[in-house]
Amino acid sequence: MITTLALDLEGTLISNAMSQIPRPGLRAFLDRCAALCPRVVIYTAISEPRFRDIAATLVREGYAPGWFAEIEFIDWDRTTKDLHRIAGAALDETLLVDDLREYIHPGQEANWIAVPQFAAPYPEDDEGLTAVLGMLENRAGA
Question: Rounded to two decimals, what is the model's pTM?
C-alpha cells in the first residue's frame, strides 16, 4: 500500500521554475494522485516561496486542482531526496516521482518512479505523466 506520494516539480510536473510550462495531462495526473494516495507532498529543489507562487499560478490557470496551492512542502538539504525527511511517512509506503536519478537517496531506489524529463521543445503530445500514472496505479494496487 502506498500512503505517501512525493512529487518533484521541475522537469517532472512543469518545465522549470523560469518558464513554468505545465506538462501535458498535469491536472488529470494530480487529480488521480490524490485519489490513489492519502498524502501527496512536493519535494523540489526550489524554495517554498517560489514553489507557492508557481503552484498558485498553475491553480489559477486551471492546470492544477485547488489543493495543489496548499500541498505539503518537504524541505531538504539539496543533496538527495531522502524520504526519511517526510515526517510520519513509512519508507515502505512512500514513493517519489522524479526525473533525476542523482537526487535519489542511496538505498531508496525501489521507492523511485522515474519520469522522463520534460524538456525543450516541450512536446504537446508528451505522455510522461500518463506513463507514470500507470506505474503508480500498479504500485498502489489500483
Answer: 0.96
The greatest distance separating any two alpha carbons of the chain, rounded to the nearest whole angstrom, comes to: 39
User: How far apart are alpha carbons 12 and 132 in whole angstroms?
Assistant: 10
Distance from C-alpha of 10 to C-alpha of 81, rounded to nearest angstrom? 14
φ and ψ of 40, to 5 deg = -120, 130
**What domain range is 95 assigned to?**
4-140
Q: How far apart are the first and last CA of the chain?
A: 10
Query: At 93, which amino acid appears?
Result: E
Q: What contacts 110, CB < 8 A, 6 or more positions away?
A: none
Residue 27 CA to residue 33 CA, distance in Å, equals 10
Task: Report the alpha-carbon distance of residue 44 to residue 141 in Å, rounded.
Answer: 26
CATH number at residue 88: 3.40.50.1000
Residues whose CB falls within 8 Å of the CB of residue 67, separated by 6 or more in sequence, listed in order: 34
Q: What is the pLDDT of residues 8-20, one digit of tens each?
A: 999 999 999 999 9
Tens of pLDDT along 42-100?
999 999 999 999 999 999 999 999 999 999 999 988 899 999 999 999 999 999 999 99
Task: Give how many domains the chain has, as a whole number.
Answer: 1
